[in-house]
UniProtKB/TrEMBL annotation:
<feature type="domain" description="HTH lysR-type">
    <location>
        <begin position="1"/>
        <end position="58"/>
    </location>
</feature>
<keyword id="KW-0805">Transcription regulation</keyword>
<dbReference type="InterPro" id="IPR036390">
    <property type="entry name" value="WH_DNA-bd_sf"/>
</dbReference>
<protein>
    <submittedName>
        <fullName>LysR family transcriptional regulator</fullName>
    </submittedName>
</protein>
<dbReference type="Pfam" id="PF00126">
    <property type="entry name" value="HTH_1"/>
</dbReference>
<keyword id="KW-0804">Transcription</keyword>
<dbReference type="InterPro" id="IPR036388">
    <property type="entry name" value="WH-like_DNA-bd_sf"/>
</dbReference>
<keyword id="KW-0238">DNA-binding</keyword>
<comment type="similarity">
    <text>Belongs to the LysR transcriptional regulatory family.</text>
</comment>
<dbReference type="InterPro" id="IPR000847">
    <property type="entry name" value="LysR_HTH_N"/>
</dbReference>
<dbReference type="InterPro" id="IPR005119">
    <property type="entry name" value="LysR_subst-bd"/>
</dbReference>
<dbReference type="Pfam" id="PF03466">
    <property type="entry name" value="LysR_substrate"/>
</dbReference>
Amino acid sequence: MTLDQLRLFIAVAEREHVTAASRAMNVTQSAVSAAIAALEGRYGVKLFHRVGRGIRLTEAGRLFLPEARAVIAQATAAEHVLDDISGLKRGTLKAVASQTTAAYWLPPILVAFHRKYPQITVELAISNTEEAARKVREGEAELGIVEAIVDDPVLAQWPLGEDHLIIVQAEDRVSEPVGKDWLKAQPWVMREPGSGTRATLEHYLRSLDILPGELEISLVLPSNESVRTAIEAGAGVGALSSLVVAPALLAGTLHAASNVLETRFFYGLRHKERYRSPAADALLDMIERAGRAVKNQKV
């Protein structure tokens, strides 16, 4: 039994005429007759009385008609759902982002996305880069936005935006030039292993021939805010995103010792083989447009 057979059956039943039904459905009379014959032959029942040129529902046809209408109505409703999803009129997008992007970079973009697509619900989880990659790999999130390169062959990864780290401290001056000796002599407040912020800092240190194990680490904390607050309280120095420390620098509760002299990127993550939803594509398009606008402002 197919939906087309049901539609043609309903058309004949409502018009009690094969020719009128074929015209209404824009098919040939033979196609209508074949559909009815296929239903009758498959189930061994007669759906219509054929007397001369007349055609009337049998008792079986009369009982079957409301069921056929119900199936077609449900199929139409299902089609509308898919139309709405493809047209971004409804749906849920599950995404995961690392702390810096989720707290400081994404919110204005998500607000703009909600204004444009108010019927799309974005469920955003916050994890460090390593955990975000796991969620995308295992299908818990369709889209990830992270702060470091992820070495995973099943994930597609590409740059979405950029940022840089700033080494900050509570004191308003640095007693000596910021070099290898200074960096190795400071007590450090660090993010946890697996965070993009820590990975970027460690990459920078290695470029200076400093192994991460050579640093004096006083605290390892699980969020940007806890690192920032500890540094403000005098626990040591730390490297945080310019997005994270900008308000504290402006307020004078933190002071920049040095920039980490390399740009770091925010990366998009998607599973290479999973379905790409229109909602995720629309959000990525909005993110990329925002990135281009920022670059144009700098130029």
